[in-house]
Amino acid sequence: AQTVTQSQPEMSVQEAETVTLSCTYDTSENNYYLFWYKQPPSRQMILVIRQEAYKQQNATENRFSVNFQKAAKSFSLKISDSQLGDTAMYFCAFMNLPWDDKIIFGKGTRLHILP
Amino acid sequence: KAGVTQTPRYLIKTRGQQVTLSCSPISGHRSVSWYQQTPGQGLQFLFEYFSETQRNKGNFPGRFSGRQFSNSRSEMNVSTLELGDSALYLCASSQYPGQYNSPLHFGNGTRLTVT
């Protein structure tokens, strides 16, 4: 069974600093998708960034980038120039088969951006 | 374009009762999936519907059921409620399931409290 592990339950950083959230996953499949979702207090899950496993190049979206290490099954999220609005719960997530919207989520990392 | 709409936002029920939650996907989205979020178990996949057919089901008892209508709107039903069913229920929609270029869009969820 696929699993997603986020080893940091909670983190705090000062505004404008860079922070990295860790995620490891376990799968025997070769092709899959990985995601980072953000859940602010409004409860809505918002897609931050996504990565296709067969793509070697790390995905970037403005201040957000990932470090995807397929052999190590690691998928960390880096937030540069952190802002107060980045305060939220962050979930690492895994989607295995195509033609299927079943996502396996990690337990989440609560990130606090301090002024 | 309106986002994923879930109603009601809050619900309080008594043990043994049944409940129906509603989800209206983004216009043009044909896939709807449901997730249960609890502090202890995190986010867990319930089921997924595409074109009125259940395509995938998570590891939940038969008390949890759902359906999708021809307009892609979906309902989720929980019968014989238990205290452990208290959770945030999230609905997500996509244009086509499991497609990298068709990411999931989540609603704000329904907070169910069972007393």
Helix content of chain A: under 10%
Structural class of chain A: mainly beta
Uncertain residue ranges of chain A: none
What is the arithmetic mean of pLDDT of chain A?
A: 93
Report on the biggest sheet of chain B.
7 strands, mixed
- Biggest sheet overview of chain A: 6 strands, mixed
| Oligomeric state of this protein | heterodimer
Secondary-structure element string of chain B: EEEEEEEEEEE
Count, helices of chain A:
0
Describe this protein's structure.
The complex is a heterodimer of chains A (115) and B (115). Chain A has strands at 3-5, 10-14, 19-21, 24-26, 33-39, 46-52, 60-61, 64-69, 74-79, 88-95, 103-105, 109-114. Chain A has 115 residues and is mostly beta strands. Chain B is built from no helices and eleven strands. In chain B, a hairpin with a 5-residue loop joins strand 7 (64-68) and strand 8 (74-78). Chain A binds chain B through residues 33, 35, 37, 42-47, 50, 52, 91, 95, 97-108, and chain B through 31, 33, 35, 42-45, 48, 55-56, 58, 88, 90, 92, 94, 97-100, 103-109, 111.
